[in-house]
Structures are given as structure tokens and as C-alpha cells.
């Protein structure tokens, strides 16, 4: 299964990042939620320390573009196989910088991808 970091994860069940973590776990993926608020999702601790994780397949971004500067270097350091920008998180400048570093990006919805089997 794909090791996935959910960037912008929070402990509020109504947020899409929370729902994505739950769905990724249900689909058997190794999920590391990373956010600014402490808490947990389905027993998985939300990391607030921007941990270095090896062999990341996907970073699923739920961070508003105005906060991308804070996250961009972290994502670059992880050098994931791909980055998925979920609705509301898309930003052409960030995408261009990541792709220039050799990291493919796509504007999509992790929840939809999981539900239709294209994740």
C-alpha cells in the first residue's frame, strides 16, 4: 500500500483532511497525518513536528495556498513520488516549483480517487 502524508490534517471530524485520513486507513494505506493542531484521527497521532519520513509515495495536500510557503520546503525534502492537491489547495506556483524539482503533481481529490479506485 502507499505511504501517504496528509498535509494539513486536523482533529476535526468535519474536515476533509480528517475524512481522507480515515478513508486512507480503511483502504489499508500507511498514513501519517501532519498538521498544526495536536490530536488524533482513528487512533493515529497527528504529527506537528514536520517529521522526516522515508519512501513517501504520496503527499495529499489540504493546505490553503496562502500557507504553502510553510509547507513547500517540507514536501520538497520528502521527495514523494507524487503530490495530490485537493480542491481548495491548488496553486500553480507551488505546483510549478515541485514539478521543477521532479515531483509530479496533480489537482484531484483523494477521497474521490479512493472511492473510484484510482488512488
Note the overall shape. globular
Q: Which percent range fits the helix content?
A: 25-40%
- Tell me the structural class: alpha/beta
Number of domains: 1
Total number of helices: 4
Q: Could you tell me the strand content as a percent range?
A: 15-25%
- pLDDT averaged residue by residue: 97
Q: Which descriptors would you attach to this protein?
A:
single chain; 119 residues; alpha/beta; Rossmann fold; five-stranded parallel β-sheet; two-stranded antiparallel sheet; 4 helices
Topology:
Blueprint: E1 4-7, H1 16-26, E2 31-34, E3 40-41, E4 44-45, E5 58-61, H2 68-78, E6 82-85, H3 92-100, E7 105-107, H4 110-116
Parallel strand pairs: 1-2, 1-5, 5-6, 6-7
Antiparallel strand pairs: 3-4
Structural description of this entry:
This protein has four helices and seven strands. With 119 residues, the protein is an alpha/beta fold. The mean pLDDT is 97. The protein is globular, with a radius of gyration of 13 Å. The protein has a single domain, classed as Rossmann fold. Helix content is 32%, strand content 19%. The chain has a five-stranded parallel sheet, with helices on both faces. A two-stranded antiparallel ribbon has the order 3-4. Strand 1 (4-7), helix 1 and strand 2 (31-34) form a beta-alpha-beta unit. It has helices at residues 16-26, 68-78, 92-100, 110-116, and strands spanning 4-7, 31-34, 40-41, 44-45, 58-61, 82-85, 105-107.
Amino acid at each position: 500500500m502507499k505511504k501517504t502524508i496528509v498535509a494539513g490534517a486536523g482533529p476535526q471530524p468535519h474536515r476533509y483532511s480528517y475524512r481522507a485520513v480515515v478513508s486512507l486507513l480503511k483502504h489499508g494505506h500507511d498514513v501519517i497525518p501532519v498538521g498544526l493542531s495536536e490530536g488524533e484521527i482513528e487512533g493515529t497521532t497527528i504529527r506537528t513536528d514536520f517529521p522526516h519520513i522515508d519512501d513517501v509515495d504520496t503527499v495529499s495536500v489540504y493546505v490553503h495556498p496562502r500557507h504553502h510557503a510553510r509547507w513547500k520546503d517540507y514536501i520538497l525534502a520528502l521527495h514523494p513520488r507524487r503530490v495530490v492537491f485537493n480542491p481548495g489547495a491548488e496553486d500553480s506556483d507551488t505546483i510549478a516549483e515541485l514539478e521543477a524539482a521532479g515531483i509530479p503533481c496533480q489537482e484531484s481529490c483523494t477521497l474521490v480517487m479512493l472511492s473510484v479506485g484510482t488512488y
